[in-house]
């Protein structure tokens, strides 16, 4: 595996532990508020549909920082060859439980894990998800 062009952030473990700690509450919150149901939110659905149309036929898509996998799963339903990675193992546990049909891996955007680092990716698009910005990038073939 080649060396990363992105230096490992000093606070990566702190960030991972923080998201691990809030993962259960985050999953409950997106279920309780309906934020986890993209189809129920016209503006969010429109953004996701526009993204899916924009990347159609451009190869696999990687949802970087996928959390519990809401966006990844929606894109897969739309026929996109999408998978997700997240720094937090607990988020990935939830994603795998909620969407067993999808592929999720624990990985940092700053590490080489068979993926290009985000810094090296030429992003075909970035999808803003309400208060959360989710980068969706083409995965290395
Ligand atoms: C606010 S959550 C959003 C989750 C999901 N994208 C969504 O819209 O529900 C941000 C996510 O980014 C992940 N994250 C933070 N830093 C990361 C990194 N360096 N690499 C991969 N994931 C990271 C966190 O673990 C967390 O799950």
What topology does this entry show?
Blueprint: H1 12-33, H2 42-55, E1 61-64, H3 70-77, E2 82-86, H4 89-98, E3 104-106, E4 125-129, E5 132-138
Parallel strand pairs: 1-2, 2-3
Antiparallel strand pairs: 1-5, 4-5
The structure holds S-adenosylmethionine.
S-adenosylmethionine is lined by residues 15, 19, 64-67, 70-71, 85-88, 91, 108-110, 129, 132, 134.
GO molecular function, one term: methyltransferase activity
GO biological process, one term: methylation
Domain Methyltransferase: 61-111
Summarize this entry quickly.
The protein contains four helices and five strands; from the N terminus they run H-H-E-H-E-H-E-E-E. It is of the alpha/beta class. It has one domain: 3-Layer(aba) Sandwich (Rossmann fold), CATH 3.40.50.
Describe the protein's architecture and organization.
Residues 61-111 form the Methyltransferase domain. Pfam families: Methyltransf_25. This is Class I SAM-dependent methyltransferase. Helix 1 (12-33) runs parallel beside helix 4 (89-98). The chain has one domain: 3-Layer(aba) Sandwich (Rossmann fold), CATH 3.40.50. The chain is 38% helix and 17% strand. It has four helices and five strands. The protein is of the alpha/beta class and 141 residues long. It starts with 11 loop residues before the first helix and ends with a strand. The model is unreliable at 122-134 (pLDDT under 50). The protein has helices spanning 12-33, 42-55, 70-77, 89-98, and strands at residues 61-64, 82-86, 104-106, 125-129, 132-138. It has a five-stranded mixed sheet with strand order 3-2-1-5-4, with helices on one face. The longest helix is centred in the N-terminal third of the chain and has 22 residues, at 12-33. Strand 4 (125-129) and strand 5 (132-138) form a beta hairpin. It binds S-adenosylmethionine. S-adenosylmethionine binds next to helix 1, helix 3, strand 2 and strand 5.
């Amino acid at each position: 595996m080649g060396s990363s062009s992105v230096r490992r952030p000093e606070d990566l473990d702190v960030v991972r532990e923080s998201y691990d700690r809030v993962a259960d509450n985050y999953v409950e919150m997106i279920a309780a508020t309906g934020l986890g149901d993209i189809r129920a939110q016209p503006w969010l659905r429109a953004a996701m549909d526009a993204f899916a149309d924009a990347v159609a036929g451009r190869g696999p898509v990687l949802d970087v920082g996928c959390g519990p996998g809401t966006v990844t799963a929606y894109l897969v339903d739309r026929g996109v060859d999408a998978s997700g990675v997240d720094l937090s193992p607990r988020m990935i546990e939830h994603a795998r439980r909620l969407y067993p049909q999808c592929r999720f891996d624990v990985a940092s955007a700053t590490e080489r894990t068979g993926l290009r680092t985000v810094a090296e990716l030429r992003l075909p698009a970035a999808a803003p998800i309400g208060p959360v910005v989710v980068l969706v990038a083409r995965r290395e073939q």
